[in-house]
């Protein structure tokens, strides 16, 4: 059974005439007659009484008509839903986030919901930067924020901002921390290089420019645990984005380095074919980023 057979059947039933149905469908009458005859053979039913000039439904045709209409309505709904998905007006957008985005992400998603209220954003922040890039390339994510500026011809990368990093140090080291060299003997807590090689190398390079190679400390999993644990106890130091740097502890100090350490944040989409919803999210990202920049002026 083909959909066109059902469409032809419903059209003839509604017009009560093969010729008028064919004109409405913009096809020739023999094609309509042939398809309906094929449908009748497949069903084993006579759907129309052809003994008169008009095409009148048989009792079997009357009984079959509502079923045919339901099938066609379901197909039309499915086609509409697919068109909405293609246009980005409904569905789910899979987004890779960064734990350090903070209020920025909240503002971006609020703006996006104004633009696409029927789109659900599924946010994941558990992947490393390379994994998020791979997920966008592989189609597992529609877009992602990454603390890097990836270079790949299959990605469209929009560099959004550079986030200043602050040194989170034991309070007793606050006076000597700005030049970094005063922290040379203290282990550095940070994420693994595999999780974010760009940021890892950025911090390593800053330390080397200050004259030392950082000693490895505990792996940074959550900032709060590190700050209120080993940093507060004087056993290590760490580096955090400025807008997330806070601690309810007199034992921890946040210090701006003499030479600014700037961590880039980029928005990445597949190139050349990003989903319309992802394009709309990029527009929301750019608008919120511009607003925040204007507000700081």
Attribute tags:
single chain, 297 residues, alpha/beta, 9-stranded mixed β-sheet, two-stranded antiparallel ribbon, 9 helices, 11 strands, 44% helix
Description:
Helix content is 44%, strand content 21%. By secondary structure, it is α/β, with parallel strands linked by helices. The strands form 2 sheets. Strands 3, 4, 5, 6, 7, 8, 9, 10 and 11 form a 9-stranded mixed sheet that branches. A two-stranded antiparallel sheet has the order 1-2. Helix 1 packs across helix 3 (29-43). The mean pLDDT is 89.
Number of strands: 11
- Proportion of residues in helical segments: 40-55%
Question: Sheet bearing the most strands, described?
Answer: 9 strands, mixed
Summing up helix and strand content along with how strands pair, one would put the structural category as alpha/beta
**H-E string:** HHHEEHEHEHEEEHEHEEEH
Residue-averaged pLDDT:
89
Report how far apart the termini are: 66 Å
> From the alpha-carbon coordinates, what is the Rg to the nearest angstrom?
32 Å
Number of helices: 9
Shape: rod-shaped
Which ranges are low-confidence, i.e. pLDDT below 50, for 5 or more consecutive residues? Answer: none
